[in-house]
Amino acid sequence: MKVNQLNIKKDMSVSELIEQFDNSGVLGAGRVARASNLLVNMINDEDMDIFMSLAGPMVPGGLRNIVAGLIREKRIKVLITSGANITHDLLEAFGGKHYRDLGDNDEELNDAGIGRIADVYTRSDDFEVFESEIIKIFKTISNKLDNNGDNGIISIQRLLKEVGLLIDDENSILKLAAENDVFIFAPGLIDSMFGLQLWMFTQDNKLIVDAVGDMHYLSDLVFESEKIGAIMLGGGLPKHYTLASNLLKGGIDAGIQITMDRPETGSLSGAPLQEAKSWSKAKQGSNLETVIGDVTIIFPLILADALNRIDD
User: Fold this and answer.
1) Residue 257 falls within a domain, yes or no?
2) Confidence band (pLDDT; 50, 70, 90) for 26?
3) Concatenated DSSP letters for 118-183?
4) Is 260:246 a contact under the CB 8 Å cutoff?
5) Taking the CB of residue 71, how many other CB atoms lie within 10 A of it?
6) pTM for the full model?
7) Could you give the residue numbers annotated as active site?
8) 3-state DSSP call for residue 269?
9) Half-sphere exposure for 108 (CA within 13 Å, toward CB)
10) How far apart are CA 142 and CA 150, in angstroms?
11) DSSP per-residue string spanning 229-243
12) SUPFAM superfamilies from the xrefs (predicted)?
């Protein structure tokens, strides 16, 4: 089969562009097209539950509404993410914002109460509001646990659901997940501003987070699902938690990974998905696609194309 040269025209749609990528079928463009085709198949498969993992600053990087939309439309069953993305979702839910174009002199930014994440910025004033509001929510949850006789013990997944039920923001990932029975897991939750505030709250209040308790929920979800597809945006702990949980049943049935990391160091973040088959984290014969590139560019492209082509 020959390589077709790309033809770009004025006013072409995203799907027309991805079709050009598919016809070329090589290098990064071909990988993007194959990932988009696989995403269409995953969404169209009524027997497949989709697990999504988020690593890196996906909420500060502009993907909050995309993830919220997937939850609202019940495209995904499980979200596995970092504590940082949880924190930044709540930052916006409490009225804070993420900013751009504030410069790159980090000492001056620090003096002005501004934190930088590459080209994204946050203000310390917004974090002060976050800290105040999340402590109020922790207090409400702690009182509820006492009244229910739970002895102050709660799993991470249940804690995040309870937080989501107390948020007044229709675009919040946590709120939408709580309302639409989408399960959120954050195995590295303590390594975040959310975790820091949680630790501070527990110094004077009874609230015990049971991380192992999450495996009861997660293993049930894995075994209840006829098939599982995974969308892994970035690598790290969320990617591994997604794959390792499916080890219980021989691995995922399909998966898409978008990452900027390289495989040469042996890191999980840069490992091609095919490698997961050697660990039974992906099934033999599973359909897998790894795309090397910036998640904030590639995932919106393939999702926009996929939504144009699904069977709704």
Assistant:
1) yes
2) confident
3) TTEEEEHHHHHHHHHHHHHHHHHHHHHHHHHT-TTEEEHHHHHHHHHHT---TT-HHHHHHHTT-E
4) no
5) 25
6) 0.93
7) 281
8) coil
9) 4
10) 10
11) EEEEES-HHHHHHHH
12) DHS-like NAD/FAD-binding domain
Q: Which of 141-150, 225-234, 257-266, 273-282 has the lowest mean pLDDT?
A: 141-150
Length of the chain: 312
DSSP character for 99?
Answer: B
Per-residue pLDDT of 185-198, as tens digits, reads 999 999 999 999 99
Q: How far is CA 302 from CA 136, 138, 262, 268, in A?
A: 39, 38, 21, 23
* Tokens of residue 215, six digits: 């495996």
Q: How confident is the model at residue 33 (pLDDT cuts 50, 70, 90)?
A: very high
Residue 25, pLDDT score: 74
> How many domains, in total, are found in the chain?
1
User: Domain span at residue 189?
Assistant: 50-285
Taking CA 33 as the corner, what is the angle to CA 31 and CA 34, rounded to the nearest 5 degrees? 65
Confirm whether 26 is domain-assigned: no
Please answer whether residues 23 and 12 qualify as being in contact, where contact means their C-beta atoms are separated by less than 8 angstroms. no
The reported pLDDT for the residue numbered 151 is 78
